[in-house]
Write a structure and sequence with these properties.
The complex is a heterodimer of chains A (314) and B (305).
Chain A lengths: L2 E12 L2 E13 L4 E5 L6 H7 L7 E10 L2 E2 L16 E4 L13 H11 L6 H10 L16 H12 L6 E5 L7 H16 L5 E6 L2 H7 L2 E6 L2 E7 H6 L4 H8 L50 E4 L2 E3 L6
Helix pairs in contact in A: 4-5, 5-6
Chain B lengths: L1 E12 L5 E13 L4 E5 L6 H8 L7 E6 L2 E2 L6 H5 L2 E4 L15 H10 L5 H14 L4 H4 L9 H14 L4 E5 L7 H16 L3 E6 L2 H7 L2 E6 L2 E7 H6 L4 H9 L18 H4 L10 E5 L2 E4 L4 H8 L1
Parallel strand pairs in B: 3-8, 3-9, 6-7, 7-8
Antiparallel strand pairs in B: 1-2, 1-4, 4-5, 9-10, 10-12, 11-12
Helix pairs in contact in B: 4-6
Classes of the chains: A alpha/beta (314), B alpha/beta (305).
Chain lengths: 314, 305
């Protein structure tokens, strides 16, 4: 198992109390698995992605453990996490445009970055990897301002994977791109895994239909907890959690017209995570809710590789 | 109702405005009453510029935009124009002043457009408008913007436009900031408003959203119309290679991307008979389905000749 997360809790400190953004999350990602992490705003998906790299000043690691390749990650010890960052866990940030130093040529910046980690820059390997994502080696002698948005995104992708991390986290990397470059970036991610540059991957997104294209498994989060995790095909065709079902039913697809089939959204809104209600957090919006939902359902395995947190998902 | 005829927009760019950038060139289409037209394009296609020109937020460099046959730039009284045409934009959060209650967007409308309406009657009107966008007035009135969700704020802005009894709504990417579970409700709302006779220009980069709600579709690329016509024809039988490649790269559920190269087809514009070229640069390949030249060899010969 590449990544094992057990009962992870990360809260945000605010003036009005603690926001329970990540409240007891248990899952694992296998070697060579690309896991899509889907959810709406406030579901905790970005908090989960950030926790595995760096907790910022407002975030507090309340409980739970994270294990990567058998070694426990010291989430709350910023200094000790340096052992893991970039080498074992690497992140492709959402706004790659602002991730590059504008005053350095790309090649120099990469050299300085590797030096700061005590690594030597292997120019030939760097050029080979640029080629892999469809960039010429000339970009190393250019400043970030000379590259287009899609090119910068690909440069950042190459830089993040230079040390062959065990886990690569891609946080909404395609959200700001056009349809055609979305496809290019997504297939590049797939290529990283297939060429063995990264062992496993977590692709964070709000777009299930996009992540379905490349992911082996998809995990859906709701209000700081896990709702469902299943192989991509199963999650899309036979979801068991009522939230996943409604979410997928609300997606308009090319070919579906308003006159033919009127889709419906999910009424209501997610609960406040400042003082979340007990029991299942989807209860208020759930059409299947019954008395037992006042008790939090476990994230149970209902079929091989298919976990659901719902009492009615038998 | 709304008609665009050969509309172009040229921006001056470069350090001293020395270079020209043609953001929109020679675009012509119509939006009828009770019709949803979606304007689809990637970034830089000029779709937002078109929306801004229709809303008179940007000037037209050449060509005309007419509303019921009147050139919109000749309507001196802007208020008269905005009584009929309103816009809603992408980010609902930045449309509200966080210091004031969110329903202030309604009282500013009253001050500007309906100063003589009594308070009681105004309240009834506001409530009716909120109900027409499926908001519970008791739930949203008197709240501050941060207490409401993005979907609620966006629907309030649509209610604000509805209060004016407008005839045309320019909806510029109004869905893209909303969560999946609420965006479909806003889309359905547009379809309901259409049933009441409102014309809607739905600007989007998302093909599946445009396909779901619109009667007619205009596909833009680099400021030019590539293909336009009835939505089912444009999406069901795309004739332009750009539309085909766009459709092939849209991520879908239940169907994975294929590596198959979009097959080469002869340029529909030059294959069509001369007399079908009824609009400038567009050939009518079937009834209400227009296609531009695919950039084939035929066009190059003509340009050099």
């Amino acid at each position: 198992m590449a990544l094992n997360v057990t009962d992870l809790r990360v809260y945000y400190r605010t003036l009005r109390g603690e926001v329970k953004a990540l409240d007891g999350v248990t899952f694992s990602v296998a070697d060579r698995e690309i896991m899509g992490l889907a959810g709406e705003s406030g579901s905790g998906k970005s908090t989960l992605a950030k926790s595995l790299i760096r907790l910022d000043g407002r975030m507090r690691h309340v409980g739970g453990t994270v294990e990567l390749d058998g070694a426990a990650m010291p989430l709350s010890d910023d200094g000790a996490m340096d052992e893991f960052r970039f080498r074992k866990v690497s992140l492709i940030p959402q706004y790659s445009m602002s991730a590059l130093n504008p005053t350095r040529k790309i090649g120099k910046m990469v050299g300085e970055l590797l030096e700061s980690r005590g690594e030597r820059a292997d120019r030939a390997e760097l050029e080979r990897r640029l080629e892999l994502v469809g960039l010429s080696k000339d970009v190393l002698d250019r400043y970030p301002i000379e590259l287009s948005g899609g090119m910068k995104q690909r440069v950042v992708m190459v830089v993040s994977t230079l040390l062959n991390p065990s886990l690569l986290i891609a946080d909404e990397v395609t959200s700001a791109l056009d349809v055609s470059s979305q496809k290019a970036v997504a297939t590049t991610l797939l290529g990283f895994r297939d060429h063995g540059l990264v062992t496993s991957m977590m692709v964070v997104t709000h777009d299930i239909s996009l992540v379905y294209q490349i992911a082996d498994t998809i995990m859906v989060m709701y209000a700081g907890r896990l709702a469902e995790k299943a192989p991509a095909e199963v999650l899309v065709t036979a979801p068991r959690h009522p939230y996943t079902r409604q979410l997928i039913a609300a997606l308009p697809e090319v070919g579906v017209r308003y006159e033919d089939r009127r889709l419906t959204g999910i009424p209501g809104s997610p609960p406040s995570l400042l003082k979340p209600p007990g029991g299942c957090r989807f209860r208020d919006r759930c059409p299947l809710a019954f008395d037992r939902c006042a008790e939090q359902p476990p994230f149970a395995e209902v079929a091989p590789g298919h976990h659901v947190a719902c009492w009615k998902a038998e | 109702m709304l008609k665009l005829d050969g509309v172009s927009k040229i921006y001056r760019v470069g350090a001293f405005g020395g270079r020209e950038l043609k953001a929109v060139s020679d675009v012509g289409f119509e939006v009828g009453e009770g019709e949803v037209v979606s304007l689809i394009g990637e970034s830089g296609s000029g779709k937002s510029t078109l929306g801004r020109m229709i809303l008179r937020l940007a000037s037209v460099s050449s060509g005309t935009i007419t509303l019921d046959g009147r050139d919109i730039s000749s309507i001196k009284d802007r208020k008269e124009y905005y009584r009929q045409v309103q816009g809603v934009f992408q980010d609902p959060f930045s449309c509200y002043n966080p210091v004031f209650r969110a329903d202030r967007v309604f009282s500013t409308i009253k001050e500007q457009y309906f100063p003589r309406v009594g308070a009681d009657e105004w309240r009834t009107r506001v409530e009716a408008a909120l109900e027409s966008v499926r908001l519970d007035p008791g739930n949203v009135l008197g709240k501050y913007p941060h207490q409401l969700s993005g979907g609620q704020l966006q629907r309030m802005l649509i209610a604000r436009a509805v209060l004016l009894d407008i005839r045309l709504l320019v909806a510029d990417e109004i869905i893209s900031m909303l969560d999946v579970s609420t965006r479909i409700d806003v889309l359905n709302l547009l379809a309901d408003l259409r049933a009441r006779g409102l014309g809607i220009l739905f600007v989007t980069h998302d093909l599946s959203l445009g396909n779901y709600v619109s009667d007619r579709t205009v596909v833009l690329r680099k400021g030019k119309i590539m293909e336009m016509g009835r939505t089912d024809l444009v999406f069901g039988n795309p004739a332009h290679p750009y539309t085909r490649s766009l459709l092939a790269s849209v991520p879908r559920l239940h169907a994975k991307w294929t590596d198959a190269v979009v097959e080469e087809v002869p340029c529909a514009y030059h294959e069509a008979p001369e007399d079908s070229r009824t609009r400038p640069g567009l050939a009518e390949v079937e009834n209400d389905h227009y296609v531009a030249c695919a950039g084939c060899a035929g066009s190059k010969i003509k340009e050099t000749a």
